[in-house]
Prior knowledge:
- The complex is a heterodimer.
- Chain A is an alpha/beta fold.
- Chain A has a single domain, classed as Purple Acid Phosphatase, chain A, domain 2 (4-Layer Sandwich), CATH 3.60.21.
- Chain A has helices at 28-43, 62-70, 74-78, 128-140, 166-178, and strands at 15-20, 48-51, 82-85, 109-113, 116-120, 146-150, 183-186, 192-198, 201-206, 223-227, 232-239, 242-249, 254-261, 265-270.
- In chain A, the strands form two sheets. Chain A has a seven-stranded mixed sheet, with helices on one face. In chain A, strands 4-5-6-7-9-8-10 form a seven-stranded mixed sheet, with helices on one face.
- In chain A, helix 5 (166-178) links the parallel strand 6 and strand 7 (183-186).
- Chain A starts with 14 loop residues before the first strand and ends with a strand.
- Chain B has a three-stranded antiparallel sheet, with no helix packed on it.
- In chain B, a hairpin with a 4-residue loop joins strand 2 (167-172) and strand 3.
- By secondary structure, chain B is mainly alpha-helical.
- Chain B has six helices and three strands.
- In chain B, 40% of the residues lie in helices and 10% in strands.
- The interface between A and B is large, with 39 and 37 residues.
Amino acid sequence: MQAQDVTLPIHAGSVRFAAIGDMGTGAPPQYDVAQRMLQFHEKFPFTFVIMLGDNIYGGKSPDDFLKKFEIPYKPLLDTGVQFYAALGNHDDPNERFYKFFNMNGQSYYSFKKGNVHFYALDSDYLDPKQLAWLEKELADAGSTDWKICYFHHPLYSSGAFHGSSTELRTILEPLFVKYGVQVVLSGHEHVYERVKPQKGIYYFTEGASGELRANNLKKTDLTAVGYDKDRSFLSIEISGDDLYFQAVSRTGVTVDSGTIRRPLAIQAAAP
Amino acid sequence: MRRPLRTTVFAVVLAGALRIPATAAPPQISPGGPEPRMFQEFTRLVQEYVKLRKALPRERITKRQDEIVDRRHTLAQAIHEARAGAKQGDIFTPDISEQFLKIIRSTLQGSANARKTIRQGEPVASLRLSVNGAYPEHLPLTTVPPTLLLRLPQLPERIAYRIVGHDFVLQDTEARLVIDFIPGAFP
């Protein structure tokens, strides 16, 4: 990837991160994406990565943790990049005790970076306790900062394999609307998709950072931009009221980019 | 360097835990269904398990993946030994099972979305379950419909409801053990 391929502005003091989902295969494509992220990081120095679930597929032996996480992302870890995981349906809940995942022993949790609140949810097990926690967290955060939720199962998706998680949507979306969540990121479908704003909220699916279901997007009226030809990762920068995003394929091609401004309005999208 | 934990120590601790007096502080468990009285006995039985479980060392945050895996295995072994006589139906007794089945059936009949959630959660094929048996680590976890969770008694930490094939399971999430299950609860 060439330097000019980074479309993000890299403003001083901005919040910069990457998002990956469904990556923990330990297979060569995961390593390819990790290498591409490292190259991207040299030009766009993101400080953390959010993981959208299915972080460790299959076996959960110590070697699996190495092969499916520590080795592919070691160069990023070595530069000080932190990872914040959400659990997917292929994950072991005990991953929340894994220091590198920054879950602090919780299957759902929040953290703040700059003017952005992040909420990592456990969409495998959305019980009343978690919902009560989320509502309190969102309410306590007020209305001046960005609020970004991420979890494994997409509320809106044009993926043919799973599609939208409509039951989760009926429960979560009212909370997101009520408390002003602006952006939601998920995985589960092994494609990249940006959905047209739904009730004022931008939804991204990035479930192709290791796994891939090629040609599995049945683009619908939901789809703003989709990519299902190869693996990918998403990078995001937030500066003041602007959120800039750029989705990059395994081969370094920018497959989506644009800006979201508060109050929410999309300003550009490419290609 | 691996640091295996001592199963035998856990087993001794567990044996003591089984004799915790009734004056011990009750664990957090709050029935969330519309008729909590139905679940009083279930709550009591879960509390017994929690008492046993509280005597065990907890997982702790670590960078060492081998420590996480060792603890899980050791914990599972210790629970297995302490509940060596446990069998299906000890917690999901026939009366309790019937109450759960009523809620499961009415939820699924009343909500296409709940049925869809299970389908989307990559349901595992039928698996031969056993109490104290481990849930295979390579298999995914089927999403439990949140509309169902809203109607069931809430569980303490480290215990969760699971759907495995057609069966409804009470699982120890850290040990990945089956605590008890209702066979054939899901069509």
